[in-house]
Design goal:
Blueprint (H helix, E strand, L loop, with lengths): L1 H55 L2 H10 L12 H24 L3 H44 L5 H23 L5 H25 L1 H16 L5 E4 L2 E8 L3 E6 L3 E5 H6 L2 E4 L1
């Protein structure tokens, strides 16, 4: 009988203690739930107002301009500045209300860790902005180099422009990782060695292989300065009218027909201009 009486007392004490604990925790739980519901309503209102402001600021048009540039060369990848901004603000506010709810429930560890994450988010957002700027600058440089090579009618413009694009993106990516708190010392050292070796080999190959091209460009500049399309000239044994002056040749129309003369022969020979 004493054993049963002891069990009864232990059970009653346990249930009484449990009831007190639940009674003490229940207001905190209700308060935390109320804070989360209130936070959800506030987030909805803030996102609605912010979305209207971003549309008035014509962020959609900016997103379309960025997507038209095909920064990653993939038409399926689209950047929506409005969605990115709204998503960032949404999670930022959610974390703030989670911290408040955790403090109400006396969950100190969770509150501290969420606070650390909240302090890290601006660095992460800045890193993403730097990476996007790198893509944008790389695309501008890529198009500029490609157009420059096409204007001079040089080959290899696509390869060189793509190379410069990836160089800029890599360096901006490293900068973004540093901003995000990632140690990039090993990555930077390896990329510097590889890129330096590649650029040295490329510069030597380009310098040795383009001597004649550069010389022809200088000769064509000299030729255009002294002669014009329509001039009647005598060069060597040929006499005729200049039809075109290209980067590496001159087209001469004579009685016998049309001749294409290398630009270096035009510069190196005596040329008579007839009025």
């Amino acid at each position: 009988m004493e054993t049963l009486s002891n069990w009864k007392n232990v059970t009653l004490d346990s249930l009484s203690s449990m009831g007190k604990n639940i009674g003490a925790a229940l207001p905190k739980i209700v308060g935390a739930i109320a804070i989360l519901i209130l936070g959800w309503l506030i987030i909805k209102i803030v996102l609605f107002i912010l979305g209207k402001i971003l549309k008035l600021a014509k962020m959609d048009a900016l997103s379309e301009r960025i997507n038209e540039m095909d920064l990653l060369g993939n038409g399926k990848f689209k950047i929506d500045i409005v969605k990115i901004t709204l998503g960032f603000v949404k999670w930022l506010l959610l974390l703030v209300f989670f911290i408040v709810a955790a403090d109400i429930l006396d969950w100190g560890i969770i509150s501290t860790e969420i606070g650390n994450l909240l302090r890290y988010l601006p660095r992460l957002f800045t890193a993403l902005v730097l990476f996007t700027i790198g893509l944008y600058l790389g695309s501008i440089v890529k198009n500029a180099i490609k157009n420059l090579f096409e204007s001079f009618e040089f080959g290899g413009g696509k390869i060189i422009s793509s190379l410069m694009f990836y160089v800029i993106v890599i360096f901006m990516s490293i900068t973004a990782l540093n901003q995000a708190g990632v140690d990039t010392t090993i990555i930077t050292n390896n990329i510097t060695i590889i890129l330096g070796s590649f650029l040295l080999a490329f510069a030597l190959g380009l310098g040795l292989g383009s001597r004649e091209i550069v010389a022809d460009l200088l000769r064509s500049f000299y030729t255009r300065k002294n002669y014009a399309v329509g001039d009647k000239i005598v060069i060597g044994e040929d006499s005729g009218v200049i039809e075109a002056i290209e980067n590496n040749s001159l087209t001469l129309v004579t009685k016998e027909g049309k001749f294409v003369i290398p630009i270096k022969d035009v510069v190196s020979q005596k040329v008579e201009i007839k009025s």
